[in-house]
């Protein structure tokens, strides 16, 4: 297929671009390089540096058969203090993209949604039918785009899939997580191991979990890429599917610290700090739906493997 990947210079978008190229797809990346890197775009893909807001001429030129839409702002804390950036970029930008698709008669899309759409869960593992009550503007902006896709499927025959990622980790094809502003646990812990940061602050050790630290569901970016390839041709015209993507296993922050110590051999100084506002105690996905519909199952579920692959990337920089 001829595909357009928005956000293909970012962490997940660049890995999925490499996987698409490997499967024989023709890829154009649209990215404004606000948090991405030109050198992360895999060889073989064309980069057009543009914003989602200016995507119409790009769609008219490329005439893609499908769009994979990763481009977004995704810092939870920032979304709370500067919400306009999230409504403007994630919601306004996605609306501009959908309109550009409509004008170019491209009606197939896979969208990066998030576990943050659910907010504090009533039940774990989280099913797609769980209530969606985001606790931050980032999650709310992604949920708004999910709603947009449902209406574009109904009104305009879009074939759409929202993939709700849980915590993505690992690296592949020589690309990995690399942000000027880093908030995610694995890259921060690896910066400490690499000596570019002094210590890791664990946000709270008084949660109602076995070791008192938060539990998350870590999914390897390679498994995530495989899900995108399966999702791309799956929906019929007029259909909007929503799938969770996680490994189905929860690991605590403390277990992650232990894994990073094992993989890197670094003592990893840790400071126990206050809870971070809006962090649920336990987020674990049920990915049963995508398993039964598309046959997806995560393969790289070992925490050590996720951390090792991210560590190899960190060391390669
Ligand atoms: N990393 C995770 O654990 C995680 C979890 C759930 C969902 N997601 C979602 O997955 C997607 C990719 O996340 P990531 O971690 O790779 O982030 P990233 O910041 O590395 O990548 C996002 C890319 O989009 C580009 N971009 C942002 N706004 C743009 C705009 N208006 N026009 C054009 N390009 C723009 C950035 O330059 C960047 O290259 C995001 O939509 C994010 O919300 C990520
Ligand atoms: O320096 C840090 C960074 C994180 N954490 C903890 O580590 C866990 C993971 O935090 P991340 O920031 O790596 O990830 P989040 O769980 O906050 O966020 C992820 O899951 C969200 C769903 O709630 C969204 O999908 C979001 O896009 C995605 O990055 C949390 O318990 C957090 O409190 C620390 O203790 N110290």
Automatic annotation (TrEMBL):
Q: Which UniProt keywords apply?
A: Carbohydrate metabolism, Isomerase, NAD
Q: Which InterPro entries match?
A: Epimerase_deHydtase, NAD(P)-bd_dom_sf, Sc_DH/Rdtase_CS, UDP_G4E
Q: EC number(s) of the enzyme? A: 5.1.3.2
GO MF entry, a single one: UDP-glucose 4-epimerase activity
Give the pathway listed in the UniProt entry for this protein. Answer: Carbohydrate metabolism; galactose metabolism
Gene Ontology biological process terms, A to Z: galactose catabolic process via UDP-galactose, Leloir pathway
Names of required cofactors: NAD(+)
- Enzyme class of the recorded protein, top EC level: isomerase
Keyword Glycoprotein among record annotations: no
Q: Which reaction does it catalyse?
A: UDP-alpha-D-glucose = UDP-alpha-D-galactose
* UniProt domain NAD-dependent epimerase/dehydratase: residue ranges: 3-246
The record's listing under Pfam families reads:
Epimerase
Superkingdom is Bacteria
Q: Which family does it belong to?
A: Belongs to the NAD(P)-dependent epimerase/dehydratase family.
The name of this protein is: UDP-glucose 4-epimerase
List the top taxonomic levels of the source: Bacteria, Bacillati, Actinomycetota, Actinomycetes, Geodermatophilales
Designated gene of the protein:
galE
């Amino acid at each position: 297929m001829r595909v357009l990947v928005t956000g293909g210079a970012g962490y997940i978008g660049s890995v999925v671009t490499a996987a698409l190229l490997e499967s024989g797809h023709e890829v154009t990346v649209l990215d404004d390089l606000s948090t991405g890197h030109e050198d992360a775009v895999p060889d073989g893909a064309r980069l057009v540096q543009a914003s989602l807001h200016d995507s119409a001429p790009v769609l008219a030129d490329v005439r893609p058969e499908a769009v994979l839409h990763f481009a977004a702002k995704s810092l939870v804390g920032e979304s709370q203090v500067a919400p306009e950036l999230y409504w403007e970029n994630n919601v306004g930008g996605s609306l501009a993209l959908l309109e550009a698709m409509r004008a170019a008669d491209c009606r197939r899309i896979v969208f990066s949604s998030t576990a943050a759409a659910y907010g504090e869960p009533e039940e774990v593992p989280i099913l797609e039918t769980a209530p969606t009550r985001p606790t931050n503007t980032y999650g709310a902006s992604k949920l708004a785009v999910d709603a947009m896709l449902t209406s574009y499927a109904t009104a305009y025959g879009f074939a759409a899939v929202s993939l709700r990622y849980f915590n993505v980790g690992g690296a592949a094809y020589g690309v990995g997580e690399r942000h000027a502003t880093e908030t995610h646990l694995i890259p921060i812990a690896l910066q400490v191991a690499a000596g570019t940061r002094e210590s890791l602050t664990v946000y709270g050790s008084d949660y109602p979990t076995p070791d008192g630290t938060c539990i998350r569901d870590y999914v390897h970016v390679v498994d995530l890429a495989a899900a995108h390839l399966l999702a791309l041709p799956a929906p019929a015209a007029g259909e909007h599917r929503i799938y969770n993507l996680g490994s189905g296993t929860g690991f605590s922050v403390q277990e992650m610290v232990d894994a990073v110590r094992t993989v890197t051999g670094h003592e990893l100084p840790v400071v126990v700090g206050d809870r971070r506002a809006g962090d649920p105690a336990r987020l674990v996905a049920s990915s049963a739906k995508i398993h039964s519909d598309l046959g997806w199952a995560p393969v790289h579920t070992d925490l050590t493997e996720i951390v090792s692959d991210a560590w190899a990337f960190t060391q390669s920089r």
